Amino acid sequence: MKLYRYLTGPDDASFCHRITEALNRGWHLHGSPTLTYDTKAKRVIAGQALVKEVEGADYSPGIDLSQQ
Q1: Does residue 38 belong to any structural domain of this protein?
Q2: What's the confidence (pLDDT) of residue 13?
Q3: Given this model, what pLDDT does residue 51 score?
Q4: Which domain holds residue 47?
Q5: pLDDT attached to residue 18
Q6: What is the rounded end-to-end Cα distance, in angstroms, of the chain?
Q7: What is the pLDDT of residue 67?
Q8: Using CA atoms, how far apart are residues 1 and 46, in angstroms rounded to an integer?
Q9: What is the longest distance spanned by two Cα atoms in the chain?
Q10: Helices (H), the chain
Q11: Predicted confidence (pLDDT) per residue in 26-65, tens digit
Q12: Number of domains in the chain
């Protein structure tokens, strides 16, 4: 089964730590990161798609992707 996640958050160290944690849990970057500017909060928001291959499991809408 192939899993997909898209992480977003302020472009800061905490976002980088979330991506690093996912990479160390076996996720892989998928495509380029995205950036946008939140004019109300006056900060840059980053996004990154991630994918992961999981053997021996079937997809279910109830899967908690953050725990994979």
Answers
A1: yes
A2: 97
A3: 98
A4: 2-58
A5: 97
A6: 12
A7: 85
A8: 27
A9: 45
A10: 13-24
A11: 999 999 999 999 999 999 999 999 999 999 889 999 999 8
A12: 1
The CATH number covering residue 17 comes to: 3.30.1660
Sheet holding 2-10, edge to edge: 2-10, 43-53, 28-38
Q: What is the pLDDT of residue 21?
A: 96
User: Does residue 66 belong to any structural domain of this protein?
Assistant: no
In a domain, residue 43? The reply is yes
- Name, in order, each residue with C-beta under 8 angstroms of 26's C-beta and a sequence gap of 6 or more: 52
pLDDT digits (tens, 9 = 90+) for 4-20: 999 999 999 999 999 99
The residues with which 34 forms a beta bridge, in sequence order, are: 47
Nearest to 32 by CA among 43, 18, 46: 46
Q: What is the DSSP letter of 66?
A: G
Report if residue 65 sits inside a domain: no
How many CB atoms are located within 10 Å of the residue 6 CB? 12
